Amino acid sequence: MSNHFLKAGLVLSALLAGMAIASCAQPESNGPGTDGSAAYFNGTTYILSDHELQVILPVNGSRVNLTLFGEAENMTLLDDVGNNISFNSSYQFRRGDHIYRLAFEEPVRGTLVYSLSRQGQQFVLPIRHAGPVRIILPPGYSTGIRSLGIARPEPDIFQDADSGSIMTWNNTTQIPYIEVNYYRKSAPLALMIVMAILAAAGLVLMVQYYMHIKKLRAQRMEMEKEES
Prior knowledge:
Elements: H1 2-23, E1 44-48, E2 52-68, E3 73-79, E4 84-85, E5 88-94, E6 97-117, E7 122-126, E8 133-136, E9 141-142, E10 151-152, E11 157-159, E12 166-169, E13 177-181, E14 183-184, H2 187-227
Parallel strand pairs: 1-8
Antiparallel strand pairs: 1-2, 2-6, 3-4, 3-6, 5-6, 7-13, 8-12, 9-14, 10-13, 11-12
């Protein structure tokens, strides 16, 4: 019986250690250019920080209509060479949506940049208009380990850059929303340490239990000898 418990303890410790090692496996980068450079992207880019979300939207026309989940701040229109372009705008709050209508004096090819307030290590993006989407995590954060946080659905391209992990979805036609749960890059190591400590503690407890059973068995055998 004692050997059975000792073996069970060793198996449990091995399983915990294996889980710790597996938890440290980082998702592989499957896209070119992992330096995080801000190359032109023909889609909407969402750059996450601790308390803010910056949105970069390509523009090609004389008007833009936006339906947002939060109130936009610092809205700026830039042409393709970076010049600031003035525009007229109207705002309406309806059924929980923040609706903006922007009109330009003449057609503009460039980008619209604005910010939204946010917090936490989860980002949920409702897809209101199908098109390419790119999400850039804050520096020092990543995603992809199921026990700590993953992106749903899985991105088409994942780039692990120093400036922040980059995920790209090329086609969002059939996607109702994107959800990204992320964590500090040091979290897998911390999890490995915790799991290793638990494995060691489990092994120590099993050994102590085995030694206690062995001692009781020896005492019982000694008592049986004395009685005989």
